[in-house]
Amino acid sequence: MRIVVADDAVLLREGLVRLLTEAGHKVVAAVGDGPALVEAVLAHRPDVSVVDVRMPPTHTDDGLRAAIAARRQLPGTPVLVLSQYVEVSYAADLLADGSAAVGYLLKDRVARIEEFLDTLDRVARGETVLDPQVIAQLLAGQRRGKALGALTVRERQILALMAEGCSNTAIARRLVVSSSAVEKNIGNIFAKLGLPPDDAQHRRVLAVLTYLRG
Q1: C-alpha–C-alpha distance, residues 167 and 163, integer Å
Q2: Is the pLDDT of residue 142 over 50?
Q3: How many Å apart are CA 204 and CA 198, to the nearest integer?
Q4: pTM of the predicted structure, to 2 decimals
């Protein structure tokens, strides 16, 4: 894949470049601030970008904002955002346009090389993948609106796995149920959340976004 890497920490940026190169990918640009990320994405149109949340100029959420700006100008461009902390709002902001091909991982996951590369590949293919710790924080909290309150326990379990980027087959395997049971529950989730028939991936993203917003 052709990849753009954006991180202001030189050691981490160069480490990512080396890791990706050794995995057989081509890093077409490696930048250290938000504006440079937007320029690189528009210039190279990469298969996926790996972006740190906190970068110059303010060192708050500039990387995230730059990724969102790049997707606004180049709709659907795949982005995997890396963060030092669990921030549910960051994941929600990424999904706010209703498009897929986004990922949100904690930086610790990079050390698990196979897991990181697998997530990167899935995001490049158009999937939505959220860090399990983000999902765990949601499950531990009380962020439940009226729409989510209508879901059964099983439907909430399935929605949480959807947020992690699991396919229907993977969900069936994790919950030890049939694929048809998963499909039926997902249909119920879409109906209860008021998501009419549309592109299946698009509805999954909207369902996950509803889940994040609670």
Answers
A1: 10
A2: no
A3: 10
A4: 0.74
